[in-house]
Structures are given as C-alpha cells and as structure tokens.
Amino acid sequence: MAIHSSARVASTAKVDPGAEIGPGVEIGDFVIIEDEVVIGPNTRIEPHVVVKRWTTLGSDNKISAGAILGSDPLDKSFTGKRSYLHIGNGNTIREHYTISRGTEAESVTEIGDGNYIMTSGHIAHNCKVGSNNVICSCTLIAGYVEIEDWAFISGGVGVQQYSRIGSMVMIAGNSGVNVDVPPYFLYAGFRVEPKGVNVVGLRRAGLDAEQIRLLKRAFRILYRSSLPLHDALERIRKDLLNEHTEHLIDFVRSSKRGISR
Q1: Order of strands, edge to edge, in the sheet holding 50-51?
Q2: Distance between CA 37 and CA 244 in Å, rounded?
Q3: pLDDT tens for residues 65-124?
Q4: Taking a C-beta distance cutoff of 8 angstroms, is the pair 53, 35 a contact?
Q5: Are 248 and 232 in contact (CB under 8 A)?
Q6: Are 7 and 25 in contact (CB under 8 A)?
Q7: Please, is 128 exposed, middle or buried when counting C-beta atoms within 10 Å of its C-beta (0-12, 13-18, 19+)?
Q8: What pairing do the DSSP bridges indicate for beta strands 62-63 and 44-45?
Q9: Whole-prediction pTM value?
C-alpha cells in the first residue's frame, strides 16, 4: 500500500493495498478506496465516499460525504472491461454525487480543474468536462456530453447524451438540453432556447466591455436577424471577428446535433 507518511486515514476507512495515496491527503471514516486508485496531494475525502477502481484524482480536491467516483457506467452495453475516470485539480464535488467511468475498454470520463459540482446529481460515462464550471444540484448529465469552461448549469437540468455545452454559458434551472448550446449565451426552457448574452458570466471570466459588446451583436445576428445559419456566421466573421466570436463560429460549424436556435 503506497500511503504517504503525511496522509491521514481514518481507522474505519478501507484502502486497498494497490491504491496510491499522496502527501497531505485526508480520508474520513468509512471511506472505501479500491485497487489501482490514485489520490493526489492535499485532497480531502469525507466519510462514506467510495472511489472505485481505475480512478485518478489530482491535487487539492474536496470530495463530500456519500459521493461515488468511478462507478460502472449506466449503460447496458458495458462489458466490465477496464476503463477510467480522470479528475484534475482543485475540484469540489459535494454530497451524494456520482461520476461513472467510460463504457468502452480503455475509454475515459474526464473532469478538468476547478469545477464546483453540487449535490445529488450524476455525470455519466465518457463525458468531458472542462475547467471552472459550476454544476448545480440534481443536474443529470448523460453519456458522451462535452462541457467547455466557465459554464454555469443550474439545478435540475437534464442534458441528453452527445450534447455539447459551450464556454461561459448559463443554463436556467429545470431546462432540458437536447442539442448543442453555443458559448457565451443564456438558455432556458424545457427544450433550451437562447434568451440573451450571459453578461454576468462573461464579466466573471474577465471579458471587457468591448468584448461583451461584440458578443451581444453576434447574438442578435445569430438569433434575431432571421438570416440562414451559414449567412449569420459569415456576417459575424466579417464584421465582429475576435477570439471569442471565432470560437462561437467554430463551435456552431462543428456541431453534429444542431444548435439551440
């Protein structure tokens, strides 16, 4: 068993001899850590957490009571072969949250850095979640979903498999996401519809007034001009091009499911 001498492990916790526990880690009562798990430095794991086999956590994560990480995917095609859950650094995962490993052999579910993931929800197999996102309580994210960075997903949201959620979006509570959601905007509804620009989120992410102004104009062209999609994107590229509008254009053009429009 590779437990660093500075780690603190409760006497009631069960840590498999094949797990690797880094320096400064705290493991609470009745935690179960299975074989071939890696827990990075200064990570804190509260009581009754289960970390399943082939899960890796980076440094400075905080895992609250009752969470289950690396569970078998909720997928009838799963055959039990080795797959992975990789979690980066500085994430907070609150009580009773579950995150599955990949379905296909050697595939991966990935969580980036600095995410704040609230209570009683699920991130399914083969998802790719970026960094600095907020995912609120009781939100359910189906398999193969991709979430970029700095998104705010409110409580009770359901995200259908293979959907993509762009950077710095905000999705209102109890919405249903069944298409790709382009970056920088606000969305709401049983089948999400664009409502405006996520000004608060953009400011929090450090965008200045001019960058926000251009995104407001891009929103009007994309969603309020009645232009065909190709023409709207060309207008944005011609009149408003910067790094953010270019990302918006690339996101929309790469969509396979179609966008909320």
Answers
A1: 14-15, 32-33, 50-51, 68-71, 98-100, 122-123, 140-141, 158-159, 176-177
A2: 38
A3: 999 999 999 999 999 999 999 999 999 999 999 999 999 999 999 999 999 999 999 999
A4: yes
A5: no
A6: yes
A7: middle
A8: parallel
A9: 0.97
